[in-house]
């Protein structure tokens, strides 16, 4: 009974995550690609959001979909090569989620910063070098996970070492204590470095927003809406994204620490940790769609264009 209940909750959770996360991230990605093709340019902040949508999409495909499949009783569907590919994709894209969210907050911090000499240099260099920065982030995350191609294999009857992570479909056997610790230290350093940077950047953004609110308090009510510039609306959206990420990262970290204190981890705890670790990929696109004016305009224009042919078809059919 307990097993059946756990699988029901797991199925509902992960299928809901997929049904929300897949279409919303695909919509963001398609809309910004359309903007890039039609307008021949994309703002750095929107380019970052496009990258976030891409890695969110890959996180859901590589982790959410297999978890949903396992919740309906399917087992051992991946061979060694598929296990290595799925594991590598998920771990890199999870790492990129942290890095891209950090980049988004740092970029917004630079946009809101006063035009002093040091900030002006960043304001010029960061947008111009955005493709290089994103490529560097991909390289950093790829360099952390070579063990996926060496130690990950499909579940089998073979004996594994005590330094093995038993995943849903695959085993990640580090073989030695040194390899296990080195992998953990590299991931922890990456996570806490970028989480720390996004937290500091978000605190600065909140400070700038607070100062902006105090500045517009004395302005006439008719001018207040004008005072709420696009930059500050975008800044509030970035702070919301970072807050959601930090909350989910905190839950994930607490569950991870708990698993280190017990000898046998409950499957429900493992499922909960994977769910909260993947949930950001479904929640962040909702925030992006609700707060990004360019995205909303593009989606509305696309909807209107799709309705025009149907209306013309109806008129033609009626006249005939």
Structure description:
With 320 residues, this protein is mainly alpha-helical. It has one domain (2-301): Rhodopsin 7-helix transmembrane proteins (Rhopdopsin 7-helix transmembrane proteins). The chain is 82% helix and 3% strand. The chain has helices at residues 2-39, 44-71, 80-112, 117-128, 130-144, 147-151, 177-216, 221-227, 230-261, 267-291, 293-319, and strands spanning 152-154, 164-166, 170-173. The protein has a three-stranded antiparallel beta sheet. Helix 1 packs antiparallel against helix 2 (44-71). Mean pLDDT is 83; it is low at 310-320.
Order of helices and strands: HHHHHHEEEHHHHH
CATH topology: the name is: Rhopdopsin 7-helix transmembrane proteins
Largest sheet: 3 strands, antiparallel
- The parts where pLDDT drops under 50 for at least 5 residues are 310-320
What structural category characterises the helix and strand content? mainly alpha
CATH superfamily: Rhodopsin 7-helix transmembrane proteins
- CATH architectural arrangement: Up-down Bundle
Percentage of residues in helical conformation: over 70%
CATH top level?
Answer: Mainly Alpha
Mind telling me the C-alpha Rg? 23 Å
Mean pLDDT: 83
Report the end-to-end length measured between terminal Cα atoms. Answer: 62 Å
- Portion of residues in beta strands equals under 5%
Helix/strand layout:
Elements: H1 2-39, H2 44-71, H3 80-112, H4 117-128, H5 130-144, H6 147-151, E1 152-154, E2 164-166, E3 170-173, H7 177-216, H8 221-227, H9 230-261, H10 267-291, H11 293-319
């Amino acid at each position: 009974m307990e097993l059946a209940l756990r699988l029901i909750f797991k199925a509902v959770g992960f299928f809901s995550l997929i049904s929300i996360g897949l279409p919303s991230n695909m919509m963001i990605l398609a809309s910004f690609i359309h903007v890039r093709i039609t307008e021949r340019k994309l703002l750095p902040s929107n380019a970052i959001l496009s990258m976030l949508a891409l890695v969110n999409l890959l996180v859901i495909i590589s982790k959410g979909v297999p978890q949903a499949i396992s919740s309906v009783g399917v087992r051992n569907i991946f061979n060694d090569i598929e296990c290595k590919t799925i594991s590598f994709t998920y771990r890199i894209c999870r790492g990129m989620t942290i890095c891209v969210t950090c980049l988004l907050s740092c970029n917004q911090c630079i946009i809101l910063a006063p035009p002093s000499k040091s900030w002006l240099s960043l304001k010029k260099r960061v947008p111009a070098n955005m493709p290089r920065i994103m490529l560097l982030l991909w390289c950093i995350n790829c360099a952390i996970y070579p063990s996926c191609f060496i130690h990950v294999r499909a579940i089998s009857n073979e004996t594994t070492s005590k330094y093995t992570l038993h995943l849903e479909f695959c085993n990640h056997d580090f073989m030695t204590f040194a390899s296990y610790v080195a992998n953990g230290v590299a991931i922890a350093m990456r996570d806490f470095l970028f989480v720390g940077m996004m937290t500091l950047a978000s605190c600065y953004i909140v400070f700038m927003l607070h100062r902006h609110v105090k500045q517009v308090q004395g302005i006439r009510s008719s001018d207040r809406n004008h005072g709420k510039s696009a930059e500050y609306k975008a800044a509030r959206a970035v702070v919301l994204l970072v807050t959601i990420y930090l909350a989910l990262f905190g839950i994930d970290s607490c569950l991870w620490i708990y698993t280190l204190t017990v000898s046998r981890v409950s499957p429900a705890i493992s499922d909960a940790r994977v769910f909260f670790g993947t949930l950001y990929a479904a929640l962040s696109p909702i925030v992006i769609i609700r707060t990004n004016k360019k995205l909303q305009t593009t989606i509305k224009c696309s909807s209107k264009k799709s309705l025009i042919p149907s209306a013309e078809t109806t008129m033609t059919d009626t006249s005939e």
